[in-house]
Amino acid sequence: MSERLVAKDLAAAVAEVCQACGKDPHRLMDIVRGVQKHAGHISGEAMSLIAGELGIPRVEVESVVSFYSFYSDTPQGRIVIRLCNDVIDRLAGADGVAQVFCDELGIGIGETTPDGAIHLTTTPCIGMCDQAPAALIDDVVVTSLNTDRARDIVRGLKEHKDPRRLIWTLGDGNNADDLVQAMVQNNIRHRGQVILSDYDEGQGLEKALALSPAEVIRAVNNARLRGRGGAGFPAGMKWQFTRDADGDRKFIICNADEGEPGTFKDRVVLTERADLMFEGMTIAGYAIGAAEGLIYLRGEYAYLEDYLTSLIDARRDKGFLGQDILGKAGFNFDIRIQMGAGSYICGEETALISSCEGQRGDPKTRPPFPAQEGYLKCPTVVNNVETFCAVSRILDKGAGWFARMGSSGSSGTKLLSISGDCRSPGVYEVEFGTKLSEVLKMVGAERVQAVQMGGPSGQLVGPGDFERTICYDDLATGGAMMVFNKDRDLLQIVDEFMEFFIDESCGYCTPCRVGNVLLRQALGEVIAGRATAADLDRLAELATSVKTASRCGLGQTSPNPILSSLERFRPVYEARLRAEDDGLIPSFDLADAVGEAAAIAGRPSAHTKA
Amino acid sequence: MNTIKFTIDGVSIEAESGQTIMSAADEAGVYIPRLCAHPDLKPYGSCRVCTVLVNGRPQASCTQPVSDGIVVENESEAIQRIRRDIIEMLFVEGNHYCMYCEKSGNCELQAIGYRFGITAPKYPFQFPSQNIDASHPYVFIDRNRCILCARCVRASRDIDGKQIFQFVGRGPERHLGINAEAHLRDTDIDITDKALEVCPVGALMKKGIGYAVPVGKRLYDIEPIGSDIEARRPAPTA
């Protein structure tokens, strides 16, 4: 993948890439990716050329290129190293690793070596928290890094310039497949009955096709299956709305954009249970009357693209996809992979649809909901990878079998991605209703101070919550669980979560675009020891405004790290407060404020600190 | 057409099915503060100043359709506080110097700030570095004053049929882009474009006609913003 095509005329290359995508502006994501693969970046000239080929305004191309962090409008290195800098990676030593990369390359983060060979940057969670620190080198994933390995990587790249040759060991299972060849480990620690147990390919689909579409939806309803992405909307209800919506053309989209820091369970499903997922999508297509499916695969998982493509091809050969599937006359369904390009917000279903349509990943206004007007304004079902897998299993084993597992409001099992301070980080499939304390015991977590349930957008919980149960009605989670022991600085962690949300906000609405920046600044005052008790109340008020007024799930949840830590760990904040002693606002530093003027005047002011 | 009945702060309102809460409120003479909404443009829902509670749930009234029996909270203390926070966010996010801005008195951000009694924002100013584009002979963009409401984006696309504007960048880096390599003069913008008429602030301005009306005698110098809508409200019956 890292090899650039031989340099050729940019215009010819753009024309070729656009032609391969049928000059369809809705394929702009693929087109930009293709052009970048050829040219290394998307120059202003390339933007104009793409716009010309597609007959769209140039600014639409610029808008898309500027939105996704994997696209660049300036030349990068021939190889791009993206060091994962999420909280878990940093706790595992990512900063030291980054320092070695900088030293060995002789550049800083965000810079390119003078010979144009290597660009070094950071990226949020790449879905490898169970084998942190990790990095992406072009599309190649390197995991379990330390300073020695970082040194070897840079020396290797300088010598052979081939990221694929950096893989010093292959992972387990399909990670070792010829088309994957990744050093990623599955780290499957606990197999439940729904997703990770063995299964017979095609069983669910065969049984579904023996039913009517209405009966399939009834089965999903009877199983009480709720969306596994986090929101927990009843899947059968979503399908029914989409089936009932007017329109001849309908779509099934699988959300494989797990970007919530600390989440990596879909990575394992895509590696080991992709057929179960494709089968679920096909069943959904049958149920709602859709002939087309898309899987939106996050750019970080590009290393799985060829493998997943081969599985789709194989399913076509076996009669599981294509025309008259399994002999069912008139039932046609096929699946295409849509690659993402580094954007957390695209995990939000309407932003994901925008991205699939070749636009910047701004969420759409609701209503209309995707069930009425989704991809290309057609009725669309968007479900999570894990949800589709559960569908296959429900149709195979029966709704009753599924509904008997879990708790009353949350049937079935849940995949958990567990990382941080524990002995056995990895993927655990547990029944809903399992107590958090049991899970912590399973993973070997000791001296636990806090657990981030559901990633940064979820809740930071403490020992007082450990006897609560994992389910939609109690401790809800899209799957991420980050464990922090008593040595960790919670405010530092909250601060990093806020930085993440600032970077990943699309910027469409005021509260999220501006409010998160202000929240982080206010938190910074606490961390710096300049805040008073009254500032904590103001912090909570601002957080509530952002949560209440934001347009989509990102801004509606981004204040959660602050709000939940204030609620459960207030003493951690209070320990940093300063008394309001002199009648001045403590966060106002007079010496600092007049510092610049004093420097210009060339003499210290009366307020300059000694 | 179906008639829908609902209430805003206890006042009964009638609307047609498919109307937004804001447009129904406007017709009934109930002012819901807003910045990105504009009567001639499709709703966009970005500023969030028009947030109301619909049966207790926050919604942008400019995009949310009416439905029968909903209970809308518009002027409750909690909602007004959130709106005030949002307006203050917009003030500190940009570089808004009312005292030397030609838009002063006609600026909707300034007017709404006055309506909410904001004298100084409680958040720290961000002092961003923003680009000004004065390349065009008749029009200039001052991004220091842009509130990213997308009125020009929508007007250019839906009314002028030109698509001169679109947003570039994301998060705090999001800013108004133009359909040209670098300069506004290279776009096909015209002095008669609707896009130039709808800017609520002093971001997209016509050159050469500054101060035709003196400060002090401008739209919102005379009446607070929203007065025109409130004037439609029927007098209470005794």
How much of the residues of chain A is beta strand, in percent?
Answer: 5-15%
CATH architecture descriptor name of the largest domain in chain B: 2-Layer Sandwich
| Number of helical elements of chain B | 7
Q: Which sequence of strands runs across the widest sheet of chain A?
A: 6-12-11-15-13-14
Q: What Rg of chain B do the Cα atoms give?
A: 19 Å
- Structurally, the number of domains of chain B stands at 2
Number of domains of chain A: 5
Distance between the termini of chain B: 31 Å
Terminal CA distance of chain A: 57 Å
Mean pLDDT of chain B: 96
Please, could you describe this protein's structure?
The complex is a heterodimer of chains A (610) and B (238). With 610 residues, chain A is α/β, with parallel strands linked by helices. Chain A has five domains: 10-67, no CATH class; 79-168, Glutaredoxin; 189-403, Rossmann fold; 413-488, Ubiquitin-like (UB roll); 491-574, Up-down Bundle (de novo design (two linked rop proteins)). Chain A is 41% helix and 12% strand. In chain A, α3 (44-54) packs across α4 (58-67). The radius of gyration of chain A is 25 Å and the shape is globular. Chain B is of the alpha+beta class. Chain B has helices at residues 21-27, 77-93, 108-115, 151-158, 194-197, 219-222, 227-230, and strands at 3-8, 11-16, 51-54, 57-60, 71-73, 132-133, 139-142, 165-168, 175-178, 204-206. In chain B, a hairpin with a 2-residue loop joins β1 and β2. Chain B is globular and about 55 Å long. Classes of the chains: A alpha/beta (610), B alpha+beta (238).
